[in-house]
Write a structure and sequence with these properties.
heterodimer; A: 308 residues; mainly alpha; two-stranded antiparallel sheet; 10 helices; B: 260 residues; Immunoglobulin-like; six-stranded mixed sheet; four-stranded antiparallel sheet; 6 helices; 42% strand; TM_pro_TauE-like (chain A); TSUP/Inactive_protease-like (chain A); membrane (chain A)
């Protein structure tokens, strides 16, 4: 069934967009990531203008993460204190990121910057997660102890002042690294146009030693807030949010996210990390290949402004 | 005195105008099948039909054979063409050209190849064919249209052609009788919204003998129109509504799928 999108100005197949929303929603519900780094390239592939895709995906991620967050909240898998502290850093990071974005755009080569940071970030994070997941899995095979919090994990981070008790996560930690991580995610999110969940989740697990049970729900809260802000910003500044496209994506996305969240609860933590690592790594490699191999067409045409 | 001088000048001007405009032996009468294409939710492209006839008068030489060129130009926009090059092992955009106020849709139809219709000089002057249409580029501080085989220009035309937005068909115009003609104007689904100008040029023995134009518009109506205007004029409200819609959708899903 074809439907004409009022802002993107092209007709699309509703079922195709629904299916894409559901697939990405499933992944996002399962791993607690926004899925923007998957959805945006898919939409561009279907023929939607990159700017419209980025802007509309923000609201889709907001819907997906909200429905995910609600179900995690019911299972008491969200640490509200941790989320608030992360957000305080996150909002500052977003502001810094928007400022940097404007600066980079005035210098040119923003596209290249985004593509290379995608490659570096995705392959590094994906590779590390995959490797860690694999090791945990092998340890479990050999019958070794499987614990999220390994003994002797008291690193320099735990020596920092301003310690605070995060009850739901059962950790006692300085707020400094938490705010810094929030800042970093907000910054990366604004510059690269992604929610940043796939970086946040491993950072929370490996650096802050937050137990896997509360990581995903809490990361979803952060994604939700940043994406609602992003939707507003895109709507006010560029007028490029396609509400019809967003609605189709949302309906597919929230449905997928529900099943994803359920599937995520069934899978063991280390398997989940291994899978997410693989996925992130695969997308990173795909971006790298695109940069390295000779493009099919060396030329690209883009509209810069319409009048009359 | 001044009044008389003015009157004399007026007569002279009128005489000059009459002398400058040649005696029109032919007149073109044309019409498009639809002057207002509306974009509805199930819009997926359309084809318009342009038809018309060549009206002759007493001064028309007998047994003249005619050639017809139809140019359809959509709303104009600035566009940029970029070229990738390999630097440090990766492909990056290195060079670019900006095309200023070029048609977003451009179609040229004729009844036979342009070379058979007119001399290269006339083709260039009358902008017959995609190679001769004026596409202004900004090259550094200069504004110019470059030669047709310029790398950026040909890449631009080629990419627009791939999307069906630029087209050139030298057999699309059919003469039903020696003076009655028709041609189809295909509009692909991703065709831009706006006003389209149609220019019809009649040639005989390699020279332009008559010219006329008409227009049609592609407009969004109803819901599409409402969404597009709201997004543009009330960005804040639009954003709020979209964000609220996102939250509602998420909330509804969690209710629908709730397992108790």
């Amino acid at each position: 069934m074809q439907l004409y999108l009022p802002i993107a100005d092209i007709p699309v197949n509703v079922f195709l967009i629904l299916a894409m929303g559901a697939a990405v929603g499933f992944v996002s519900g399962m791993f607690g990531i926004g899925g923007g780094f998957l959805m945006t390239p898919l939409l561009i592939f279907v023929g939607i203008a990159p700017a419209v895709a980025v802007a509309s995906v923000a609201s889709h991620i907001a819907a997906s993460s909200f429905s995910g967050a609600i179900s995690y909240w019911r299972r008491r898998a969200i640490d509200p204190v941790l989320a608030v502290v992360l957000l305080s850093g996150g909002s500052l990071g977003t502001a810094l990121g928007v400022w940097t974005f404007t600066l980079l755009r005035s210098l040119g080569q923003l596209d290249l910057m985004i593509a290379t940071s995608y490659v570096i970030l995705l392959t590094t994070v994906g590779g590390l997660m995959f490797w860690e997941g694999l090791r945990a899995l092998l340890r479990a095979r050999r019958g070794g102890p499987v614990t999220t919090r390994r003994p002797g994990s008291h690193v320099w981070i735990h020596g920092l002042p301003l310690k605070m008790r995060f009850k739901r996560s059962k950790i006692y930690l300085s707020v400094i690294p938490v705010v810094v991580i929030g800042l970093l995610i907000g910054f990366i999110g604004a510059v690269m146009g992604i929610g940043g969940g796939f970086i946040l989740v491993p950072l929370l697990i490996y650096v802050l030693r937050v137990p896997t049970s509360t990581v995903i729900g809490t990361s979803m809260v952060l994604t939700l807030v940043t994406m609602v802000f992003a939707t507003m910003l895109h709507a006010v500044t560029n007028h490029l949010v396609d509400a019809v496209l967003a609605l189709i994506l949302m309906v597919g996305g929230v449905t997928g996210a529900q099943f994803g969240a359920r599937a995520g609860q069934k899978i063991r933590g280390e398997h989940l990390r291994l899978l997410l690592g693989l996925l992130v790594l695969a997308v990173g490699i795909r971006f790298a290949v695109e940069l390295v191999i000779r493009p099919e067409d060396l030329f690209t045409v883009r509209e810069t402004g319409v009048t009359g | 005195m001044t009044a008389r001088l003015a009157r004399t000048l007026g007569w002279l001007a009128l005489a000059a105008v009459l002398a400058a405009s040649p005696v029109r032996a032919e007149r073109l009468i044309v019409s498009v099948s639809n002057h207002r294409v509306t974009v509805t939710p199930n819009y997926s492209g359309e084809e318009l039909v342009l038809f018309g006839s060549v009206e002759k008068d007493a001064s028309t030489p007998a047994n003249r054979t005619y050639d017809l060129v139809v140019t359809v130009a959509g709303p104009r926009a600035d566009m940029v063409t970029r070229r990738k090059e390999r630097r440090f092992g990766i492909w990056i955009n290195t060079d670019s050209r900006q095309f200023l106020q070029v048609p977003t849709y451009l179609a040229l139809f004729s009844n036979r190849p342009f070379d058979a219709i007119a001399s290269p000089e006339v083709q260039r002057r009358q902008q017959l064919g995609l190679n001769n249409v004026l596409l202004t580029q900004r090259v550094g501080p200069d504004y110019a249209d470059v030669v047709p085989d310029d790398a950026f220009r040909s890449a631009f035309v080629r990419l627009r052609k791939q999307h069906g937005l630029y087209r050139e068909e030298t057999s699309a115009v059919t003469f039903l009788t020696p003076t009655l003609f028709r041609t189809g104007i295909p509009l692909p689904a991703e065709v831009p919204i706006g006003l389209y100008n149609v220019e019809i040029k009649l040639f005989a023995e390699g020279a332009l003998v008559a010219k006329t134009d008409t227009a049609f518009e592609i407009v969004k109506v109803g819901f599409e129109q409402f969404v597009a205007t709201t997004a543009r004029q009330n960005g804040f409200v639009y954003g709020l509504v979209t964000a609220f819609m996102a939250l509602m959708t998420g909330w509804m899903a969690s209710i629908v799928f709730r397992k108790d």
